[in-house]
Amino acid sequence: MVNELKSIQESFEELISLAIQKEEEAYDFYMTAAKHAEHQSSIQLLEELAAQEMKHKEKLQRALNSGVCKTFECNSVEELERLDLSQYLVDIPLKPSSTSQDILIVAIKREEVAYKFYMTLAGLTKLDSHRAVFETLAKEEQKHKELLESIYDEHISPWM
Asked: What's the whole-model pTM score?
């Protein structure tokens, strides 16, 4: 049982580390999109989203360093695998030829899966302070998604 608990904690540590990596990728994604944006308002929005993703990374690193993985409630590696948390951390690729519409769609999907991932982690931790970290991250990702959807609706949908 001790070995299994250790491997559960290691699995959670890998997930949090992967989430940190995904936040870094989101930062890069938004900064790259900002470089290709044509309007100053789009550039500012994308840079703001990038900065928020870096704050998410910092929150995750602090949580990892404070032992958050010891607070998750999961009885076995099999139970953890059934949760399939890695599904939320898959990469959604873009091509150099991606349009503004493509970028917005990918960004919306990335924010949606990040929201689901953090909400799942919030439900697994037994400490209120750690649950609050993941709930806050989830809410911020949800706000990003809603903002991107409104931009999509305003600028892309009218042309369809």
From this structure: 0.80
